[in-house]
């Protein structure tokens, strides 16, 4: 085993070298990518598969549509709110990755079982929204943190694979839920068992490297000066307590709020909107395509972000997501199946890809020292997005119909695109930044 040393580059970043991934893990670090992706694939069913259950829950129990989608809003609030505390506890050695994943496995399974057997909305809110949301948030934060820790030299592609799995893992569930509505309890019990086994199995193997760990290649100080990989390195490292002292944080937080609001609006309302006009078959296809497009888009953008610039991709993604909302309403209202599916694909590639970009933007803007915790703080904007995109949207749908709701979603995404164009790296004048 080589001598373990700590190096420092011209930007003040520290690197722990001398330990290989095989020495620490007993296998290549690519295993971490697939372990985290498998856990995210299982955990994401609760978010991306929920829309397929809304008609069944309403028809079986007579619950109102507004009350059912509100449970998704509370779930998203709990899921997003768990990200920062999970990272904070892990950094202090109070919640190791295996324990976090094991707890997440139990809570995620509990959320799915609740949806299969609950006979009251209070049970749904407690079991699915609170327990299931917290469990998914713990798994999400642990898996993203693992990518940040094991792939400091190529975070974008790995984050794309892991974040993408959170979306497209629900596609089989959506198809089965739509095809077998009467088998909801059995389907959810079986899904809960699979989710528990997958996440708990990952808990047995997933580990974090020592702080500041760096792989054997490339040489870190040479890598730090390579503009192909470090287009705009952070000026300094921001601790969580410092984050909201700079204006960029608020602007980026608002961008995440707007992107999350539109994506969650589509997840909550699109299937019902389409089912009322074109039947449950097309609604299920639209929901499955939304998850698939979001997942595959995250993988693609994760690979392109370093090359084309996250700032630029974020702006175009939000623009595409905004246009998609108008395409969705027009095609759905006029029963144009092809146009509707094209709009769904555009929506998934747009608003659904922002979280992958957020992982890289946090490091680019605020440095690596507290990247996982800083990501957790900014990811919590999804909770505010849930209030806007699901809670307030319910009032708009009830009082003004789907036209106003889709139009408002489109405007919010376009506003996010405009706001993202004003993002600047903290501590560096905008006029000195290279073209992104």
UniProtKB/TrEMBL annotation:
This protein's UniProt keywords: Membrane, Transmembrane, Transmembrane helix
GO CC terms of this entry: plasma membrane
Major facilitator superfamily (MFS) profile domain ranges (all copies): 248-436
Matching Pfam families: MFS_1
Primary subcellular site in the record, as a coarse category: membrane
Transmembrane feature ranges: 31-50, 62-82, 94-113, 125-151, 158-180, 186-206, 250-275, 281-301, 313-331, 337-362, 374-396, 402-421
Coiled coil: none
Membrane topology note: Multi-pass membrane protein
PANTHER family with a match to the protein in the record: MFS DOMAIN-CONTAINING PROTEIN, MONOCARBOXYLATE TRANSPORTER
Record protein name field: Predicted arabinose efflux permease, MFS family
